User: What shape does this take?
Amino acid sequence: MALAAVNSRVGKYRIVFKPLDDSTPQRAGWDPSQTTQNALLAAADGTTIGYIGEFNSGASAISIPLLNRNGIPQISPSSSAVGLTSSAAGASPGEPDKYYPTGFRTFSRVAPSDSIEALAQVRLQRSLGCKRTFVLQDGEVDGEDAAITFALAAQSAGLPVAGIQEFARRSNDYRSLAASVAQTGAGCILISADTESGTVTLTEQVASAIPSARIFGSAGVAESTYTDPAQGGIPSALDGRVVITAPMLGAGSYPSSGRAFLAAYARRFGPPQPYAIFGYEAMSLMLNALARASDDGTKAPQRSKVAAAVLATRDHRSVLGTYTIDRNGDTSIRTYGAYLVAGGRLSFWKAIDG
Assistant: This one.
């Protein structure tokens, strides 16, 4: 849709979108080997001028250095791990420098990082009366990063964290884990994971073991495969107990261009998943940077200049509102949405600043 808005052209240059799937049936989600193959394929193509992705932070951790060695600008709509761009709290040793072997930044993102979601989660949980939270994470880069950054934010805010526990992905039985969580006395549970990790089963069994607990979900479960029973999601009986944070806001929070996009998307594809508008904006920003770097397509585009143009984005008006990309590649947007689950769908409740 973003490419169609400019008739697939920037000046005299035709832009072609080549989708690459980083998932495999065997892993039921993104796969490290497939991600590597995709990045190498893009790097080997002399006509590649930009790369949109990855969706998951773990995949971005693999593709960023491969693309960086070839100077290819990369914009993710969703990879939110702190260490991809910064050494701030939540990053691991060696991050982010290990992702940029050339010494120059080529990666940016249009969704706020996990540090922003962590602050929003803490504020949300405190507003709902949480006194003690237990965190369950799936061991994936996104899940672990979001869990750690939440724990750090909670500690700073005075919200006790009863524990952080990694759970086995795609298990059929989490009853023992749920029972051990119940023994901690935590009244709130944060599930920091993606849906493919087995979070539906985990949610059901934790909810059964701790009937009074409020359950919170990170952005990784903000999708219909988690919320909709018809798509294998949680049973509707749990709707009133689950609250999820995601970077997408309610339509009324966006400028007219954002509302128009959401309406157009819904007409073509049905209700938008939370990251649809960020996917649109990732492509839009890439095209905007390409135009700026090539004098509106009158000069031959160069990867280094496009990457620099992305990082030089200031007060950019977009479907998300007006934002800036800083020198690390992070957006100035600092707001997350809190969602309730109703009738199998995410229902926007309120915006929370991180």
